[in-house]
Amino acid sequence: MTTLSRIRIGSAPDSWGVWFPEDPQQVPWSRFLDEVAASGYEWIELGPYGYLPSDPALLTAETDRRGLKVSAGTVFTGLHHGPDVWDKTWEHVSAIAALTQAMGARHLVVIPSFWRDDKTGEVLEDSTLTPAQWRELTIQTERLGHEVRERYGLSIVVHPHADTHIDTEENVTRFLDATDPDLVSLCLDTGHYAYCGGDSVKLIETYGERLGYLHLKQVDPAVLAEVRAQDMPFGPAVARGVMCEPPAGVPALGPVLEAAQKLDVDLFAIVEQDMYPCEPDKPLPIARRTRSFLRSCGA
């Protein structure tokens, strides 16, 4: 078994069924912090901005007393729309980047906007970008990477995601080939990439120098087949159970972590098992089993 000395394991509010700043179906933030610490994790992400306290002093006190540290914040962007959305985007990004910086984290996970609503399935725009939109996406993402680094000392890591324009191997590699490695790195989410037909180990071996961050997630192949057959939006697919508890799904996480270790750089690998919505008592036992499984992989 490879000792994964360069991989730092964590979890996120997502693994507790948290998708929104406020939602009656979600566990309170204090319970999430209690349970993620009890599961044996040291690192967490901020999750949707406003779920955890946005006051750095309060959040620092709450994480410190549980032995937790923050690895990243998360932002949502629609940068393929071009300069017209920059001011609105920056307003959203800057508050989250400031909290991320204040918590001592160095990464900002950037998720592209959905082309269809993840709750209702309403198609919001074409699922395929025009050449002009691709140019704007790459130009504005590089701008974001530059501004976030200059103003907050953070690195952006772009997260390919189901039902967005950066999803399949074709679109992920097109995006990477068109962006400056000095400004834009990749957050590889193993579950989303498998959901969209990609091979995570192959991507790491081919574009390893672009990998800045990992999300660990698995897909249930049987449920995914149903999702694809029904052209189901991502939200209902998650409710159906398309993202499953490791090691029951794909991809196998051991080979992914070994491929990442071979890059010989320090990487966060944050567990994100999409479970919205879920019963409040469901996440903790899964989180404990998942942490134990990852230890068996050397992490």
From TrEMBL:
Taken from the record, one Pfam family name reads: AP_endonuc_2
InterPro entries assigned to the protein according to its UniProt record, in alphabetical order = IolE/XylAMocC-like (IPR050312), Xyl_isomerase-like_sf (IPR036237), Xyl_isomerase-like_TIM-brl (IPR013022)
Q: Which domain of life is it from?
A: Bacteria
- What is this protein identified as? Xylose isomerase-like TIM barrel domain-containing protein
- Report domain Xylose isomerase-like TIM barrel positions: 33-296
Its organism's taxonomic lineage begins at:
Bacteria, Bacillati, Actinomycetota, Actinomycetes, Kitasatosporales
